[in-house]
Amino acid sequence: MNSFKLLCASTALATLAGAGFAEDADLLVFDYSGFENADFHTKYIEKNGDVPSFAFFGEEDEALQKLVSGFKADVSHVCAGSVMKWVESGILEAWDTSKITDYANLDSNLLGADTAAATSYFIPSDFGSTAIAYNMDEVPAEDVASLQVFKKPKYEGRMTLPDNVDDAYALAYLATGTTNWQNATDEQFEAASDWLREVHPNLRTYWTDPGELAQLLATGEVLVAWAWNETYPTMVGEEFPIGFQRQATEGSSLWLCGYVNLKDAPGSEDKAYDFINGFLDVANAAPLMEAGYGTPNLKGLATLGDQTLIDAGLEPIDAPILAQLPMSIELREKQSEAFEKIKAGF
Known about the structure:
Elements (H helix, E strand, L loop, with lengths): L15 H4 L3 E10 L9 H7 L2 E7 L2 H9 L6 E5 L3 H7 L2 E2 L1 E2 L22 E2 L2 E13 L23 E4 L2 H11 L10 H14 L3 E5 L2 H10 L4 E5 L2 H7 L4 E4 L6 E11 L6 H12 L4 H6 L7 H5 L3 H7 L8 E3 L5 H15 L3
Parallel strand pairs: 1-2, 1-3, 8-9, 8-10, 12-13
Antiparallel strand pairs: 3-12, 4-12, 5-6, 7-10, 7-11, 7-12
Helix pairs in contact: 2-9, 5-6, 5-13, 6-13
């Protein structure tokens, strides 16, 4: 999902044809590959008989450009960092949250400040955590008790960050004492940028996808990483001695994606609400978790049990959390420009 969340582009295992369902011509969902999995849409199928129709994109700027150029769909997936850019493009219609059955059960921390609004452009649908992944055989727990581990000369050349502006700045804001980037001041932005600039020489590389990160850890090239939660259970399953520190003194972050309602949509508005209601249903928590995603529905999360959440790196924690909520276009562009310069050594 954007370079930010390629996450489960590789999980498109259950094709619609294999599931034995036709595609509903009354609803077209523009999405990341993998989210057509019929297991995610059982409530929609129960009500409408078929799965929705899907069209796919690989990166969010590509998706936005296609929509602005005239491609028509009813609903689209997008990650939070891009939302304001999509809103400003004029292609979105606000959701009527009174028609979203489980809206009151959504985690308020993932909704932002506007939780009481009657309408919203962005409804969170899936999330994951980003924290310190480390080799427990080589790195003592006390060394990862703080995000300042990325400054330690001891691990110079054996650390990595995501090649993604949102994840990198989430880390840098936390490390410099900011837990809400929506309200970041110029001084907080500069402090985060300076922190990333100081960390840059210590890194072996910037990882681009979870498979690359797993390989870097498995070979021992990297001992400490800022990583998505999916890396944790994957490497536990491979019997690698991986730790996942979400409770560093300064905290950890949550990435967040959701669905937007597209303006002048060709299909059924009622079925768009059937889609979002089905996706957010309590019963959808288990299939989403099996694919590596958390549901923002707190009642749904509660059905999974504490151990399931711990195993996935999504358990409640007693530490600061920076939710990667939508930010202003101006701030995101400043971060993107600064991040490219930092990676180039400036």
